[in-house]
Write a structure and sequence with these properties.
By secondary structure, the protein is an alpha/beta fold. The protein is 31% helix and 24% strand. A 9-stranded mixed β-sheet has the order 3-1-2-4-5-6-7-8-9.
């Protein structure tokens, strides 16, 4: 039902990825995802989850109004677009959407209520899935008027073609690229020499690029 959603967990922490590292957020982790990325380290299955109504989730938000924003994460939160369409107009916090950037139709249902977009660009070399260049292009086009950045998880297998395609999409809309090396529990699994080489390949084609590892893993926080 659209007025209910299956949520894995709700908690406060600091944002550990991308340009908003360090801000306090209320994280709402939705169950389910439409992709199966090999590097995914998030438990978003429905076991031990809870079904929330719009009013119940609003009550949780109202307890945490000191937060910078509410992070809609998962899994893939846009799988719950019907629920979010009812919830977001009532949400008293700015909305930060963490998404795999493939569900452009669902994004269209809620984009008016979103403030920040963390859009993953999925590289086949890292995910071991198919490429989603067209989906990413259409998605970023729809969200480009928001405060958006593209997050790119990579490892040593990244290809020159993947770099070109990523730059092509992001340069088209002026979107900043955040390169995120794959990580283990508390360290990057890509060495700094390789990370620097990858970053330089991006910078030769596009200047709006930063390398930012997953800081919450170094700090050992959720």
């Amino acid at each position: 039902m659209a007025d209910r959603a299956k949520i894995k967990e709700i908690f406060t922490s600091i944002q550990g990825e991308g340009p908003y590292i360090g801000v306090k957020q209320l994280f709402v982790r939705f169950c389910g995802c439409n992709l199966m990325c090999e590097y995914c380290d998030t438990n978003y299955d429905s076991k031990d989850s809870r079904i929330y109504t719009v009013d119940e989730l609003l009550n949780e938000v109202k307890k945490n109004l000191e937060c910078h924003s509410i992070s809609l994460t998962g899994g893939e939160p846009l799988l719950h677009a019907g629920f979010l369409k009812e919830f977001l107009p009532l949400c008293p916090l700015p909305v930060y959407l963490e998404t795999n950037a493939t569900l452009v139709g669902e994004l269209g249902e809620i984009i008016d209520y979103v403030d920040y977009v963390s859009a993953d660009i999925k590289l086949p070399s890292a995910t071991h899935e198919i490429a989603y260049w067209n989906e990413h292009d259409n998605f970023i086009s729809k969200a480009a008027h928001k405060m958006i950045f593209a997050k790119v998880v990579f490892d040593e297998n990244i290809t020159d073609e993947e770099i070109r395609e990523t730059v092509k999409i992001c340069a088209k809309y002026g979107v900043e690229i955040i390169l995120q090396p794959k990580s283990t529990v508390n360290q990057m699994s890509v060495n700094i020499k390789t990370s620097d080489l990858v970053m330089n390949k991006f910078l030769k084609q596009y200047k709006k690029v930063r390398l930012i590892p997953q800081m919450h893993k170094f700090l050992n926080i959720p």
